[in-house]
Amino acid sequence: MLRRRARRGQGADRGGDDPLDAAQERRVRAVLALGGVPQADLPDGVQQVRLRLLERAASGRQAPRDVSAWAAVVASNLAMDWHRAKRRQERVGERLAALRQPEPGSGEDSRLLSLAVAQGLDELPAAQRQVLVLRFYADLPVRSIAEQLGVPEGTVKSRLHTAVRALRDRLHEDEVV
Question: Measured on CA atoms in the order 165, 98, 112, 128, is the torsion positive or negative?
Fold first, then answer.
C-alpha cells in the first residue's frame, strides 16, 4: 500500500516525520539543480520544500493530491527565487562598488555629493529615511518594505515621495545638483 501511494505521489512518509519520500526528494533535487541552484544549496532547497509541505498541513489545508508534482512546482519556484536573490545581490554589490570607487576626474564632486546626500538623509524624519534607505540602498520593492514595516503600500509610497522631494530640494539648496 505504501509503495502504491508513493508511486501515485501521495507522500508516503518514513516513520511519519518526513513528508517527502526518497523518490520525491530526488525529483525536488533534480528540479532545483536543473533550475540552476548550486549543488551546495540543494539541501536547503529540499528543506524549504519540506517546510512548506509541513506548514501547509499545520495550517489545516488539505494535502496536495499529487505531492510529487506539488513539490516539483515549489522547487521550481524556489529556483526562480534563488536567481532573483542572486541578481539582487549582484546589483547591490555593483552599487556598493561604484560608491567605493569614484570615477577618475570626478572624485571631489563625488565626495561632495556623497556628503550632501548623507547630510540630507540625516535631516529626514526617521520614517522617511528608513523607507528611502530600504528602497534605494537595500533595493527592496515597495511591497516588501510595506510588509516588513507593517504599513500599507500607500504609506510607503507617500513617505518615499516626500523623502525624495525633501532630499532633492536639499541638494538644490546646497547647489550640489
Answer: positive
Residue closest to 31 by CA, chosen among 52, 18, 45? 45
Alpha-carbon torsion angle 163, 169, 173, 177, nearest 10: 100
Fill in the DSSP letter of residue 10.
-
For residue 139, the one-letter residue type is D
pLDDT in tens, 86-132: 888 887 777 777 766 555 555 666 777 777 787 888 888 888 888 88
Nearest to 50 by CA among 33, 35, 29, 30: 29
- Following DSSP, what letter does each residue of 17-81 receive, concatenated? TBSS-HHHHHHHHHHHHHTT--GGGHHHHHHHHHHHHHHHHHTTPPPPSSHHHHHHHHHHHHHHH
Cα–Cα distance measured from residue 100 to residue 93, given in angstroms and rounded to the nearest whole number: 10
Alpha-carbon distances of 48 from 19, 30, 34, 118, rounded to whole Å: 12, 15, 17, 39
3 state SS of 112:
helix
Question: Is 0.70 surpassed by the pTM of this model?
Answer: no
